[in-house]
Each structure stands twice: as structure tokens, then as C-alpha cells.
Amino acid sequence: MTEFSNRLDNKNKFKLGLFAINCASGLAVTKVNERWRNSWENNLKIAQLADEAGLEYLLPLGRWMGYDGETHFHSNVLESISWASALLAATRRIGVISTIHTSLHNPVILAKQLATMDHIGGGRVGLNMVCGWNRQEYEALGGELFFSHQDRYHHAQEWLDIIRKLWQTETPFDWNSKFFKFKKVYSVPLPLQKNIPIFNGAGSTLGKDFAIRNVDYLFMLTLDLNQLRQDIISIKKQEKLQKRKKPLNFISYSYVVCRPTYKEAEEYLHYYSQENADWEAVDHIIKLLANNSKVVPIEEFNLYRSKFPAGHGGYPLVGTPDDIVNGIEQLYNAGLSGTALTFVNYLDEFPYFKDEVLPRIEKCGLREHLAL
Ligand SMILES: Cc1cc2nc3c(=O)[nH]c(=O)nc-3n(C[C@H](O)[C@H](O)[C@H](O)COP(=O)(O)O)c2cc1C
Fold first, then answer.
1. CATH code at 282?
2. Which residues contact 270 (CB under 8 A, 6 or more apart)?
3. Ligand 1: distance of its center to the CA of 166 in Å?
4. What's the confidence (pLDDT) of residue 93?
5. Taking CA 159 as the corner, what is the angle to CA 155 and CA 162, rounded to the nearest 5 degrees?
6. Which of 177, 171, 172 shows the shortest CA–CA distance to 155?
7. Peptide bond into 191 cis (omega under 30)
8. CB 39 within 8 A of CB 345
9. pLDDT tens per residue, range 174-227
10. Residue 281 falls within a domain, yes or no?
11. What own/partner pairs with CB < 8 Å and gap ≥ 24 does 273-277 have?
């Protein structure tokens, strides 16, 4: 049987992808006119550009409900599975990931959807599982699927165990556990990839423990480099104790404002993320996060608020191409093996990043030239 390879499995020390191109405004909570339009045409164009440039993955955000404000931030979001299926058919080498809320998707149906997508893309699909945080969003969808924090991860464990079993055997099996009871289930065809890459977006101790036990990539928030470094060191200690076979990879997300001079980059950052921020939407999100999520410590919320519009809590990569490479080296040295990039307008700004930043990252040895 042919071994299919996902570009995510390549040898690059620092893997790059695009994040949130499926969402109106991407991750910039801004009112500027040039903010991202998530039309299908734009998604297709930027996905093909990223593929040609050699990026490893495209990662969507999973959202079922927006955050109001003048821009109706994240009310307009393309659904992750249909989006990824179409992009897998329209690209050649790049990994395309689906972001999935565990309790909103029946695992048997999802296993088959992802296997189908893997066939469509010739072995390039990935799964980013999120266990959920926004009670309001779950209540809108019926409520009873929003479990206690602990139960969210118990549920996710059973959910993932079922999916993995379905991907490993064509033989029907029964399943009987706390959250799932299935009779004679199977999912044929199996995926092309032996191991579909699995990401988990999480921040709590429970979430990190889940990632250590189960997934390939922990998708993290980077508020502070020292904190990130400490977090990764302590997770690696846990990994050793738990005798993981392959090391866990750590990735974050970062917003890019890259211009020929630092002054230009800083001025544009201020223009879109302070003078023209959609503060009503920002405050709505911050309030929801404060009430529902453990990812950001409560005492850091005010500082977090002022930086939030630039990239939804992402890490700043702001300045000249050399400054961006410097920032990426710092992320690498803190222990990350990649970051998912966002731009105010991906199509306007990614070509400059591709021409000026990618060759510099290759020069410093973190990536090889892998363009199509
Ligand atoms: C980097 C990152 C990306 C995430 N992406 C999404 C997403 O697309 N949709 C979503 O509803 N939640 C997303 N989440 C939230 C997670 O699902 C999770 O509920 C939240 O981080 C709380 O983490 P915890 O369960 O470990 O406390 C993301 C979290 C992180 C850290």
C-alpha cells in the first residue's frame, strides 16, 4: 500500500500555516474597510497561494455564533468540514485541517467524513478538536451538549477513542461507555493516512493533560514568551512521565503586520487595532471568555483587552521582514514547532510575507524551500 504523506510530516523545524481564513475579518477585530472578506473565491485564492508557497497547513476556526459589534464579528464563518473538503479538492500538497467541537459531532459520522476528505485530498486531512468553552453557543444549539469542564474531557476521550478505532479496523464493533452506545459500527473506507494528524486547542491543566495523552499538536495561546517556555518545559516533563512514544508538538497562532519599515508596520497596527477596533465586539468576547474560559488568568484580562483587536489574543509578529524572522526565532527558541498566521487581509499581505519573510526563515535554517 502507498504511504501517503501530509506536508505536516515534513522535516521543517518550524511549520507555518494560515489560521481563520474561513472567518469574516479573520482574527482582526477591526472596522477597517480592507478587513478580510471570507468569500469562497478569496478562500480558494489564498489557499492555493499558501499551497504554492510551501506552507504546511490551513487551519479554520470553528464558530457557530458571532459576537455582535458594528462588524457582527464572527457571525459570518464558513463551516469547517465543507470548507476543508472543497479546499482538499482544489489544492495539491498542503495539509487542510477541520476544527471540530467534540460534543457537536457524532464520532461515527465524523470518522467517515474525515476519511472521505482524506481520500479527496490524497492523504492530507487533519483534525483540530476543540472541547468548547462558550456556553451561549452550545445553548443556542440545544444546550445539553455543554458538559462540566471535567466531563468535556471524559467525553472527548471516548469520542476520540471511537474515531481512532474506526480508522484502524474495517470490522464492525459494539461500543458501550458513559457517553456512547453503538451497535456494529464501522467506517469504510479507512483513511489513506495511517495517522491523521490531530490538534487540540486547549489551555487548562485538564486540556493539556488530554493533549499529552492523545494528540500530535497542542494548539496554544501565547501571551508571554517566558510563560510559554515554562509551560512547554513542564508539559515535556509530564510527557516523559507518561512515556509518550512520539514527542508532542506545540504550535501557537500569531498575527502578522509586515512592512518595509518598522514605523509603517507600527502605524498600521495602531490604525486597525486601536483607532478602528470594533471595541463593542472585543468587550463582548472578553466578557464571555472571562465568564467561561480558564485560558487567560483573570488578572491579565485588561492588558489582554487592549491587545485583543490586533489578532484575537495571537502573538504579535510586527515590523520589517527581519523583525518577523526574529519573532519567529523567539517562538522556536521558546519550544514551539510552528505557528498559524493571520493577516488583516490575507490576499493583500501574504504575497509580501512569501517573498520577503519565507526566504529569510529558510536562510536561518528553520525551514527548507518547499514550494510546488
Ligand atoms: C489556540 C486555540 C484555538 C482554539 N480554537 C477554537 C475554535 O476554533 N473554536 C472554539 O469554539 N474554541 C476554540 N478554542 C477553545 C477550546 O476549545 C477550549 O474550549 C478552550 O481553550 C478552553 O480550554 P480548556 O478546555 O483547556 O479550559 C481554541 C483554543 C485555543 C487555545
1. 3.20.20.30
2. none
3. 25
4. 94
5. 140
6. 177
7. no
8. no
9. 999 999 999 999 999 999 999 999 999 998 999 999 999 999 999 999 888 999
10. yes
11. 273/28, 273/29, 273/30, 273/307, 273/309, 273/310, 273/311, 274/306, 274/309, 276/30, 276/31, 276/32, 277/29, 277/30, 277/31, 277/309
Query: 304-353 pLDDT, tens per residue?
Result: 889 999 999 999 999 999 999 999 999 999 999 999 999 999 999 999 99
Measure the CA–CA gap between 72 and 67, rounded to whole angstroms: 6
Would you give the distance in Å from CA 359 to the centre of its chain?
24
Pocket-testing residue among 21, 23, 133, 339, ligand 1, by greatest number of atoms within 8 A of Cβ: 133
Cα angle value 265/16/197 (rounded, 5°): 150
How far is ligand 1, taken at its centre, from the CA of residue 202, in Å?
5
* Structural domain includes residue 175: yes
Q: Which three cell numbers stand for residue 82?
A: 465543507
Interval between CA 135 and ligand 1 midpoint (Å): 13
N-term to C-term CA, the chain: 25
For 198, the grid coordinates are 490531530
Q: Which domain holds residue 254?
A: 7-363
Total domains in the chain come to 1
- Among 104, 221, 295, 298, the mutation site with the greatest number of ligand 1 atoms within 8 A of its Cβ is 295
Q: Does any domain span residue 370?
A: no
User: What's the whole-model pTM score?
Assistant: 0.96
Which residues, in sequence order, are CB contacts of 289 under 8 Å at separation 6+? Answer: 133, 295, 296, 301
Whether 371 maps to a domain, the answer reads no
